[in-house]
Amino acid sequence: MHFDTKAVHAGVEPDPSTGAIMTPIFQTSTYVQKSPGDHQGFEYARSQNPTRSALQKSIAMLENANYGLVFGSGVAAIDAVVKLLKPGDEVISGNDLYGGTYRIFTKIFEGFGIKFHFVDMNDAAGVEQYVNENTKLIWLETPTNPMMSIIDIKAISAISKKHSLLLGVDNTFASPVLQSPMELGADIVMHSVTKYLGGHSDVVMGAIAVNDESLYKRLAFIQNSCGAVPGPQDCFLVLRGIKTLHLRMERHCENGEKVARFLAQHPEVDKVYWPGFESHPNHEIAKEQMKGFGGMISFTFHEDDMQRSFKVMEKFKLFALAESLGGVESMANHPATMTHGAIPKEERMKVGLLDSLIRLSVGIENADDLIADLEQAIG
Ligand code: P1T
């Protein structure tokens, strides 16, 4: 089945009791049993909810995976993955990643005795040097947040397979429309559903997709035991959002390209980070493993002057100055003080995350209006 058809239909069956074409919002905390243990497959809503089940099936299908699980947020999904590990285990993580992921790794799980190595995932051979007998998981984002590096998933999966490690890929920036990590060797695909999957800036949610049944069972056990499950109304909103994911991504990519090219020719702008440029260091990998270059762009000015960037962001009329991304509306974010504030400056500097860097999530508005907004704000 083609992706577009899956986006519209995956996971959603007409409701058997009424024929409702949309999965109902099963706003219930529990299910009545005839006799203890005699029920219809639903016992308690932390464990199972039909609206959630439909969404989990949908996300699994979009990711070409056998199983899906959704969580109360993207970081709750990451939390569940790390809970597969035990004290003494080690994780090799990309060094260019969402600040909240860095924070949960270092501020929560290091305290439980798990060790994290933050390394440059562009250098696959370098990654292998960190593997030892305690290593259990490799974790990466691609495109990375916020530097838009494209990590070669196949090359990293060759290392994870050689050493029998799990490979987790945060597919948030690409969305399942543009990139299918399962087909490139990932064991776990993770999403901040809050972003492109939800798509309308009205839900906070996370998801995991896996192929292996025993891995699924362990993660489902964690989901139920730790309880970070989303409510049914949020699941409904995401089911609804997914139906237009392919159309939205098409426009995000189209607008992303126009905005990136506008920024690249602007005399005030220094670097523009967008994987569609031939000059992007990972452009060839992007062409190979992605179906489009996405709508996420970061850029800097000639001088690394944070106040200059703040002034530009204050002037935006259409771009909303906000944390988050992937909504229909365009957003601008200042990673150094907002989304990546939890990462120490010396760590940020290693990947080139300057104080002046602005990150854009290009929405699905008219590109001319977006460019006009950038033009008036940058001056
Ligand atoms: O916000 P939450 O749904 O918990 O998702 C966390 C998360 C995980 N992975 C990536 C790549 C992310 O970008 C995020 C959340 N990011 C933002 C809020 C942001 O503006 O970058």
Can you describe this structure?
The chain has 379 residues and is of the alpha/beta class. The chain folds into two domains: 3-242, Type I PLP-dependent aspartate aminotransferase-like (Major domain) (Aspartate Aminotransferase, domain 2, 3-Layer(aba) Sandwich); 245-378, Aspartate Aminotransferase, domain 1 (Alpha-Beta Complex). The chain is built from 14 helices and twelve strands. The chain has helices spanning 3-9, 50-62, 74-82, 99-109, 124-128, 153-162, 175-178, 213-226, 232-242, 245-264, 283-289, 306-315, 345-350, 367-378, and strands spanning 67-71, 90-94, 115-119, 135-141, 166-170, 188-192, 206-210, 269-273, 296-301, 320-321, 331-333, 358-361. Strands 1-7-6-5-4-2-3 form a seven-stranded mixed beta sheet, with helices on both faces. Helix 4 links the parallel strand 2 and strand 3 (115-119). The longest helix has 20 residues, at 245-264. The radius of gyration is 21 Å and the shape is globular. The site of ligand P1T has 19 residues, from helix 3 and helix 4.
